Amino acid sequence: MTSAGAPERSGTTRGGGTLYRGDLGMWSWVAHRITGVLTFFFLFTHVLDTALVRVSPNAYDAVIETYKNPVVNLFEVGLVGAVLYHALNGIRVMLVDFWEKGAKYQRVMLWTVLAVWVVVMIPGFYFMMERTISDLVGGH
Amino acid sequence: MSLALDKPRQPRRPAARRSNGELYSWLFMRLSGLLLVVLVLGHLFIMNILDGGVHKINFGFVAGRWASPFWQFWDLAMLWLAQIHGGNGVRTVINDYARKDSTRFWLKMLLYVSMVLIVSLGTFVIFTFDPNISSN
């Protein structure tokens, strides 16, 4: 991505840690934006569906049923994954900004973020999908 | 082909017209982010993972939680912080990608209206929730 039109910048990607574009740090920023915007759009929907508790218990229970649908349940895993990445990478951003060694360790911290994400999401996926999968596989 | 970029920190506006708004916005994102890590991850853990995850949620479950001022305050703080944090993030995204001033203006108006709507509705629901509302 950086190599084609900008020969003057070649070879500097990893050395000084000053170059940003096309490097891993840029992709962590892209992912931070995408997960943030998606979460904000979900929040809009989520406050509206929760507001149905003010209408009637039946209206609320009916809309919550859609959250228990297997496909929607899978989207919830995606939502939790997006929020978890945004939270972990947000802590990394704060460390880069406020910790004197933050910029030096930003790359290590990104791999740590991804490692923690995987370690949390594996049991997370299991517990979030347990009921849905047992219903699908074992019959109701 | 070299990159044609403006020099950073080149003053374009007279110093007197600058405000610290973006600094406070930047600081707010970090402070609210820190609180939201606890509030939102806690919320997701309780709602989606603990005790059968989403399948346990119904009107009775919500009524049980909002019987406690602790969870009412938790949800109220989460609503306000998440909405302002997320709205400020989307504001930045609009500023970055909108190409015409009129597009930028109207997208931000739409954003601000939706933020006021969601914060007001959510706050109203938390404060006026009635566990004995008729079940029709």
The structure class of chain A reads mainly alpha
Oligomer: heterodimer
Poorly predicted sequence stretches spanning 5 or more consecutive residues of chain A: 1-13
Strand content of chain B: under 5%
**CATH first level of chain B: which class?**
Mainly Alpha
Count of separate DSSP helical elements of chain B: 4
Would you list the SSEs of chain A in sequence order as H and E? HHHH
How many domains of chain B?
A: 1
- The helix content of chain B, as a percent range, equals 55-70%
Mean pLDDT of chain B: 90
The chain-level mean pLDDT of chain A equals 86
Largest interface: A-B, 41 and 44 residues
What can be said about the biggest beta sheet of chain B? Answer: none
Beta-strand segment tally of chain B: 0
Examine the coordinates and then state which fold CATH places here, giving the name of the CATH topology of chain A.
3 helical TM bundles of succinate and fumarate reductases
* Element-by-element helix/strand order of chain B: HHHH
Quickly name the level 1 CATH class of chain A. Mainly Alpha
Output the CATH homologous superfamily of chain B.
Fumarate reductase/succinate dehydrogenase, transmembrane subunit
The helix count of chain A comes to: 4
Biggest β-sheet strands, sense, barrel of chain A: none
Describe, in plain words, how this protein is organized in 3D.
Chain A: This is Succinate dehydrogenase, cytochrome b556 subunit. Chain A: It comes from Lentzea alba. The complex is a heterodimer of chains A (140) and B (136). By secondary structure, chain A is mainly alpha-helical. Chain A has helices spanning 24-50, 57-67, 70-98, 106-138. Helices cover 71% and strands 0% of the residues of chain A. In chain A, helix 1 packs across helix 3 and helix 3 (70-98) packs antiparallel against helix 4. The relative contact order of chain A is 0.10. Mean pLDDT of chain A is 86; it is low at 1-13. Chain B is mainly alpha-helical. Chain B has one domain: 3 helical TM bundles of succinate and fumarate reductases (Up-down Bundle), CATH 1.20.1300.10. Chain B contains 4 helices and no strands. Chain B has helices spanning 21-49, 59-66, 69-97, 101-128. Chain B is elongated. The chains are: A mainly alpha (140), B mainly alpha (136).
